[in-house]
């Protein structure tokens, strides 16, 4: 199986960021959505990002943000990629100052082929679990059989992943990347370095 990339989301400290990188994470996610328990202030995220080693993709997660705030946060923090995780239109996403990915909350009635067409300008689609009243971070998985094999964009698989289910998730969906947050935490916003290590180890084991 081709190399599957790993994104560790909900980073809130330089200690966790550096640990994730040196354990083999390809990307780090920073949540710029104030209601989230994993929210990080842009100034703190900027400090972490500017002290990371090279070749790590830093992703800023936004939910229904206005264009002015988006542009300022991207500029101030230096993130490489924007993740729209709310109800944003394709037009709003297209105004992003950086390449962008669109999170799709997957339920029984979700048409992923149609969503891919709708967000045609997306760098990739991130698939999370549909939970009423939530924009993600619920720790719940969705039915992986709903992911079509012929979707025309790279897929980032999220939603309730952890070291126990990630191999099965990858085998079922053949994603470009996996995204984990709660599955590698001691508590919300604080990462468990042993869990991160084991999660990444299991992702890498699939390549063999």
Assess the beta-strand content as a share of residues: 15-25%
Largest sheet: 8 strands, parallel, barrel
How many separate domains?
Answer: 1
Second CATH tier, the architecture: Alpha-Beta Barrel
Low-confidence stretches: none
- The CATH superfamily bears the name Aldolase class I
The gross shape turns out to be: globular
Q: In angstroms, what separates the terminal alpha carbons? A: 8 Å
What does this structure look like?
By secondary structure, the chain is of the alpha/beta class. It has a single domain, classed as TIM Barrel. Helices cover 30% and strands 21% of the residues. It is built from seven helices and ten strands. The chain has helices spanning 14-23, 42-49, 67-77, 90-94, 112-118, 166-173, 193-205, and strands at 5-8, 27-31, 57-62, 81-84, 100-106, 124-129, 155-157, 177-180, 185-187, 190-191. The strands form two sheets. An eight-stranded parallel β-barrel has the order 1-2-3-4-5-6-7-8, surrounded by four helices. It has a two-stranded antiparallel ribbon with strand order 9-10. Helix 1 runs parallel beside helix 7 (193-205). The relative contact order is 0.17.
Concise synopsis of the structure shown:
The chain is α/β, with parallel strands linked by helices and 208 residues long. It has one domain (5-205): TIM Barrel, CATH 3.20.20.70. The protein is built from seven helices and ten strands.
Considering the chains and any ligands shown, give keywords for the structure:
8-stranded parallel β-barrel; alpha/beta; 208 residues; two-stranded antiparallel sheet; globular; TIM Barrel
């Amino acid at each position: 199986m081709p190399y599957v990339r790993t994104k560790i989301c909900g980073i809130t400290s330089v200690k966790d960021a550096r640990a994730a990188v040196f354990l083999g994470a390809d990307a780090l996610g920073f949540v710029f959505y104030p209601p989230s328990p994993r929210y990080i202030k842009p100034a703190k995220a900027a400090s972490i990002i500017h002290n990371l080693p090279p070749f790590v993709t830093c992703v800023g997660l936004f939910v229904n943000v206005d264009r002015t705030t988006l542009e300022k946060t991207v500029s101030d923090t230096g993130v490489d990629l924007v993740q729209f995780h709310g109800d944003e239109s394709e037009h709003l996403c297209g105004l992003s100052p950086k390449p962008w990915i669109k999170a799709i909350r997957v339920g029984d009635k979700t048409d992923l082929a149609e969503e891919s067409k709708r967000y045609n300008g997306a760098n990739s689609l991130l698939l999370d679990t549909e939970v009423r009243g939530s924009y993600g971070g619920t720790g719940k998985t969705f039915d992986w059989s709903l992911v079509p094999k012929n979707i025309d964009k790279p897929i980032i698989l999220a939603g309730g992943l952890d070291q126990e289910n990630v191999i099965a998730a990858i085998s079922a969906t053949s994603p470009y990347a996996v995204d984990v947050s709660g599955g590698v935490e001691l508590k919300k916003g604080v990462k468990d370095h042993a869990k991160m290590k084991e999660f990444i180890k299991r992702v890498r084991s699939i390549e063999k």
